[in-house]
Amino acid sequence: MIEISHEHLKMFDLLTSPICVFRQDGLEVDATNAAFCAWLGHERDEIIGMSVVDIHPAGQQALLRERISTFLDDDCETTDSLDRWQIVSGSGKLHHASVHWRKVLHDGRTAILVTFTDLTREHLAENRLQQHEDEVAHEARRPRLADAKFTRLF
């Protein structure tokens, strides 16, 4: 298992991708980079100590706890594939993100290092495309006015 030092955390601030480290026990955020703070719209000292579950919509918190528990029980140190999370910012904005998480040691304890890729724009585009496809399908099922007039002739 990789050990994350305070020097690593300083380097994380140079990265533009949001990153946080949270404890295995209690799930409190131990460390973040500046990009994570900006993304959430909170100061670092507001985020430190907050549960990683607290930044998720209420309806998804139990599922997140289950995912984390499954990951921690697994023998693997990192996820094989990206997971998707919904994150609520300080302003209440809902972000959609892919996450990659890895078990690490931080301050002598098992923790989870998470990197985020914001997919909010892609999610909104997918929703608009799906809405358009639904409208086209609905329109295709509606009888056309010309078809209705033609049918009445017979």
Structural class, from helix and strand content? alpha+beta
The major sheet is characterized as: 6 strands, mixed
What is the average per-residue confidence, as pLDDT, rounded to a whole number?
Answer: 80
Count of helical regions = 6
- Gyration radius (Cα, Å) is 22 Å
Shape: elongated
- Percent of residues in β-strands: 25-35%
Distance between the termini: 78 Å
Number of strands: 6
Helix content: 25-40%
Q: Write the H/E string, N to C.
A: EHEEHHHEEEHH
Q: Which residues sit in consecutive blocks of at least 5 with pLDDT less than 50?
A: none
Please supply descriptive tags for the structure shown above.
154 residues; alpha+beta; 6 helices; elongated; 40% helix
How would you sum up this structure in a few lines?
By secondary structure, this protein is of the alpha+beta class.
Give structural notes.
The chain is an alpha+beta fold. The chain is built from six helices and six strands. The chain has helices at residues 6-12, 34-40, 44-47, 61-73, 120-141, 145-152; strands at residues 2-4, 19-23, 29-32, 83-88, 94-106, 109-118. Strands 1, 2, 3, 4, 5 and 6 form a six-stranded mixed beta sheet that branches. Strand 4 (83-88) and strand 5 form a beta hairpin. The radius of gyration is 22 Å and the shape is elongated. It starts with a strand and ends with a helix. The mean pLDDT is 80.
